[in-house]
Predict the structure.
Amino acid sequence: MSTAIKNTQTLSNGHRTVLGPGVQAPDFTLRCTPDQSVSLNELRGRPVVLAFYPADWSPVCGDQMALYNEILDEFQELEAELLGISVDGAWCHSAFAKQNKLHFPLLSDFEPKGAIARAYGVYDQKNGIAERALFVIDADGIIHWSYVSPVGVNPGANGILSALEDLKAKSETIAAAK
Amino acid sequence: MSARISLTLPDPERDHFQGSADAPIKLLEYGDYECPFCGDAHAMVQQIQRRLGDDLLFAFRNFPLANIHPHAEHAAEAAEAAAAQGNFWGMHDLLFKNQSALEDEDLAAYAGELRLDANGLIREVIASVYAPRIREDFKSGVRGGVNGTPTFFINGERYDGDLGQMLSVLTAQLS
């Protein structure tokens, strides 16, 4: 995990600091299945949506991951990679993904527990889980947008899609200027 | 998606709605016919409609979570196909009352019960004739802040409170 976070621009969520726009997204390599891993730096070159959530197996109809699963085509249109992340183990993620027919990776922030959630400033120490926190990371690995949802409120997808559209518009403007 | 659709307010020109188009309270639901919480909410909405009468416009848009609810998409198609035959709300009510029986043959039976053209309805369901409209509903919900099912908007504002309290919240808005 990268510790070279020089820019200290952060958002406050009351009792800890959440990484905010302009900050280099801390790198990580985490398991997404019992025998496969994903590293953030392997995904450079396109936007990444990092969706921290408290736990697998929350009630399904209101479930954040089930919602994102239904709009994967929109993430793809915006050329973004979606990663779910919680402190659940890889076997738990496998069962959860299978049950809900999820078609995107769920990363396991399992050992040391919650280390990546801590690095992003979204670990709920008291309950030992990640908060519902969203990060949109640009193609260069810089955080473009982040949001922490109030306890118990599923943040939905609108903020993510707006941030991705914003990124796309920016990259098109830059491309046109070249 | 059409930019004309309001994401959080009913559009009487487009949406299936009950009540008066100029009612002071406009309630918009994004729902899924196979979602048990939507089934519970359906009874609640009916109670709210009885209590508020002409003061309420209620509209429904589709938000099928098709990966976790394998029958939700066809059920939504059936409601839209029934709408094309002039009876959206009859099918809507039957689907919510029979959430555990949403196979295609069940959908055909409900169409028959409503005296609709069941064969024509099922043909349209299987051909996904109304999929673009359902997707338009879904996308407007996503952009409007729908985060699960059911999600309700009261006069354009997402209601995050307890469903059991919704009637009193609506009544308070009236006074």
Notes: Chain B is about 45% helix and 15% strand. The two ends of chain B are 37 Å apart (CA to CA). The mean pLDDT of chain B is 95. The longest strand of chain B covers residues 25-31.
